[in-house]
Automatic annotation (TrEMBL), chains A, B, C, D:
Domain of life: Bacteria
Protein name (record): Arginine dihydrolase ArgZ/ArgE-like C-terminal second subdomain domain-containing protein
Residue span(s) of domain Arginine dihydrolase ArgZ/ArgE-like C-terminal second subdomain: 142-356
Pfam families assigned: ArgZ-like_C_2nd
Source organism per UniProt: Geomobilimonas luticola
Length: 367, 367, 367, 367
């Protein structure tokens, strides 16, 4: 498929790589503590030389993790999860000098390494043409609906508008969402919309402030806390519309990560942020395309966890796409600046983006 | 039609208005100079009391102009166009005390004056639900296509993307644009796209920077200057796609107003800003709906010229709608803060906005 | 002192309040679950009528909490902390109809209730004049340094620049900071600056990217995790400069709240967000002035916890000031829109703000 | 002086340059029309090879102009000012292939060509450390006050705040401004402040909206139009404070360029945009440091006119610095993206920037 470039592994017969030493490890001095000189992962494919020309590719990688290498193979682990004595890969060079090779050009079209990289890094602004980006995105989503795993990261804005909430529901119901990462606010306002047709007390269609509407999200939270879970609430009240209900009906896993600004929170919210990270990474390991919409916090958190490649079950390597939909260049650039080179920013309104996507994928106009 | 509220004129039999004195005028002391104490217009319907209970409504009004009253009637004139000795309406009160009445509630639904005003002024942000705003806009455009006059104010971003440029062309060709206000850049990059498929040297579909592409807009300008006009260039080169060509084919008038950042400029550009204002106001007088997209300068300039009502040829009064499409709350609020109460901000990307509009009005999805 | 308005309590002899019924309570049906119809607090002074004309003012209030009323008095408690059977104040009216009175005009200058409120709520933009806001802020800080409690809420940007980091240190050392709320990133980059003179690998003075600098914050975190705490690290390495070291030296309490984007985290970070909220509220209860700089998440979280008044130990009531320093109108407005009417936005760069404040309070220029 | 790097001319004995052909010219086919294949200037030093190893450096260059070469030498001229038959330099290569050499590394420190360029182009955001940028700016301004020429480009925001307006006045009075480029709005609101203490009707110190204040700027404009000029108005009314009065007193030239959003305009405003460009370029030719504050239109217009070098009267070449002070990354990047590589963005509030600058240069704190 045109939109998904193929992967060219490094040529380990190259003289510099052929001459590379075996990688070195050192034991972690304590739980959650690394030996000085540890190697930290990027979001690119990384190989370590176990010796004798055997190079291992790190599977299920992420940014700023460490590599544990033992007889069982190579694992990518967050520093806080490293246990005392585990063998941590050492070295801070990236071209084989210490047995570590970071392969940044594996998805470049043949013969265009430099150009490809340049285009890849070009930063978009609100005036950048996005026509092809959209066409590619549609192609990718149609492909990954069947053969990949699409991960959505959503801020609450998507639930504040009737049409975008409907569109997101449609995308879930039609197989374009394999997992959802969000916070307490998205789920709360999605439920508020289901129960009261408002978002933070404002009608999600007419924008009108409803009298007493500022109680609506508090009442929604209280309702769920009383019943014990979102699942039970949706079932007992027979709620049929909305984002979370669609996930429940379709068995799409969702992670609601807690934050210090949460009211409630809802029972499903994972209030401990390191536990929430662990749950998020479970989904991040599998993803082939991420679409992060209107949430800086969750987008950066997810961006840190998602590498720019995935080793599929058959051993092939494919790129992971990462779309960031945001209104400000600052927000969109922030992730790109942290080293997530695969991020593609689309500068637009979250609601429009989701509504468009639905119509493009459904092949229907707005009537 | 539901979307277009009807107008309720003031009740001049109200005691305070019935007791209002006749308005006073004073002669302008010199060309372009006003008598101290002059009255400046708002963008609302304003009436002056000529005496004996005869109140005249200002037609074709605008912000910060003055009223000239003589036997021939009441005219709204920019201060710089006032000639020595002309009778300028005096007074700075707005409730009849000096024979001037500013009618701010004429379009409010019966019995809801206060609420109506409040909703009208609510400021949108990127998280505001826009579903109904879009539905209303579609309804208004379908109505005004036949029975009104739709004025577009465009920044160059619309020409930087293939799909949005195509969509704008479609809107013009299908009768949704009765006049266009823009600057040198919009026309230049529209032509650059026609000749080279680029915008500022960047491919309008793929985003790729074309080698030597920074010459493209200069070559486009030179081509037009050589041939003498956009009209001749489009005809001689048989250019069929684009915004300006569509206007030329459909005889949609356009005003290109000069600015100090212009290259060239193109021959049609009115380099003198007061002449450009006069040409813009010719179009502004007629409009019933304005859609201003991705240009702060032209949006504010137009906003100053467009009142929130229009007196139709049959004497009926209808509202004038003013949509501002911008990416930043600052940009969108700026006009609202200057007193253009009718402005409705839609916070989104210009390209998405235009593409959506096309699909919604055409009743087709993006395929 | 001029900058701190005095408080006028409600006149409970007013006929409508004199006729108010006693407030009603209902037992919480389960831990963390509220009885339907519960009353939620605003950030304004709220009084409940216990009967016989006895009105109790809620002390240590906050947004969206509930009131528990029993023989021991009136407490403001987050819904999740309510225990089964506790008596929750019921009612959603605010003018005494159900024995609850929300007093929004207590700090208005005599006779100017309406005007005062209007000015209070005026939204600033980047073009708003801030001269008096600064002068007032200096006056307030000089006052509250001795007679109040100044709470800073800081995003990491303050630590990314040498001068602003120095300035913040100075403000702490000179008594202008009684407590600090921040996240893992602020402390991490503050320590990174102390150890490496960089912020995310970029020199905090020259902006130059340091080779291998992307390891610096990971090494800083690892160093602290190895030693067990920030306090021990600062002591053992004899670190003298920076924000956290200044807090430690001056015994200024700080709360580091966890988020899902944290690397590490540092040992002092409270990873559970509800525990972090509890710790933050401990500081929020005492504050008389909040200065929230360049962090949307922590600002909103804090804004939810800080009422617009404080009952001092001697029973007097004074306003709590809440300054938000942010670069975008969207960010600054967001808190104001949630009902935190006392928030005053200053639209500017965090670094400039802090540096200016230091010079203004020190009475020195930048030399 | 450390802050002002020295210039290294190209080495024309390099084999590729030694072998370069003489440059070719072609006559302009008509007034304001260029021969196809014309060369357009960048903002870098450009040399043309007249033949026999004689290379001429373009003096007083600018972006997107053309080079005219004849016996009298080499001139940089805007395309619209080229007259029929004048000899236009041809060629679109930049490394001598056609006798044109664009020298982009002349100001790089010896031996660091690549690094220097990289650092130069790094984009700032609101989180970038600016400490050194400020220190360098102070050093540059102290130097250029005596030995250079400082050009300010000002949006109206500077006049909307009492302290920043005072600070700007101080900078002019103390020799830190050799010329000023602005629009009708800056001068209008500066005068409004002098006459009424308001900006657009809002008190420039307290932010309070003054009753009837929306007339103030119209009355100010009318006052000046009545008296015939700003100079006469300032003299006759004995106005002592403000930006324009300071320019008049110190004989600092100012250009007020017209735009389509102008009320009035004031008599000094040059309403024709090409005439305004000519007047602006008169100032731009001389400048050694530009400080552009809070105006996108004037900043881009000026950026197009100011090269990154200046040939001094003694023939030495020095860099021209270009500071852009803006609140949004989008605004600040826009100029940089157009090829003005020398632009340095400072992301902050215009008012704070000017006030800080005054205190830093005066060596005084805010008291």
């Amino acid at each position: 498929m045109a939109a998904i470039p193929s992967y060219t592994p490094p040529d380990f017969s190259r003289p510099d790589l052929a001459a590379a030493p075996a990688v070195r490890t050192a034991p972690a001095p304590a739980d959650g503590v690394l030996p000085p000189g540890f190697h930290a992962t990027s979001n690119h494919p990384e190989y370590v030389h176990r010796g004798s020309g055997e190079w291992l590719l790190a599977g299920e990688s992420r940014m700023d993790a460490v590599l544990l290498l033992d007889a069982g193979g190579l694992r990518v682990v967050e520093p806080r999860l490293v246990r005392q004595g585990e063998p941590v890969v050492m070295g801070r060079s990236e071209n084989g000098e210490e047995g570590i090779y970071v392969h940044t050009t594996g998805f470049d079209p043949a013969g265009t390494a430099t150009e490809g990289k340049f285009a890849f890094r070009a930063r978009g602004t609100r005036e950048t043409p996005f026509s092809r980006s959209y066409d590619e995105l549609y192609e990718i989503l149609r492909h990954d609906r069947e053969q990949g795993s699409i991960l959505w990261v959503l801020g609450p804005a998507v639930a504040f508008d009737r049409d975008s909430r409907d569109a997101m529901q449609w995308l879930i119901e039609n197989g374009y969402c394999h997992a959802l990462l969000a916070g307490n606010a998205l789920a709360t306002h999605d439920l508020e919309a289901a129960l009261f047709r408002t978002g933070l007390g404002q009608d999600i269609y007419t924008q009108a402030l409803v009298p007493g509407g500022h109680y609506n999200h508090l009442d929604a939270i209280n309702e769920v806390r009383r019943r014990g879970s979102l699942a039970r609430t949706v079932a007992e009240l027979d709620i049929r519309d909305g984002i979370i209900p669609a996930c429940l009906r379709r068995s799409v896993p969702f992670v609601l990560a807690g934050s210090i600004r949460d009211d409630g929170p809802l029972p499903e919210v994972i209030t401990d942020t390191v536990q929430a990270q662990d749950a998020m990474r479970q989904q991040a390991r599998r993803t082939t395309t991420v679409i992060a919409v209107a949430t800086q916090l969750h987008t950066i958190a997810t961006g840190n966890m998602v590498p720019d490649y995935r080793v599929m079950e058959d051993g092939t390597v494919r790129p992971v796409f990462f779309y960031i939909v945001d209104m400000s260049e600052f927000g969109a650039d922030k992730l790109a600046n942290r080293g997530s080179g695969q991020a593609r920013a689309i500068l637009t309104n979250a609601q429009d983006f989701v509504v468009n996507l639905r119509h493009a994928l459904a092949g229907t106009g707005k009537l």
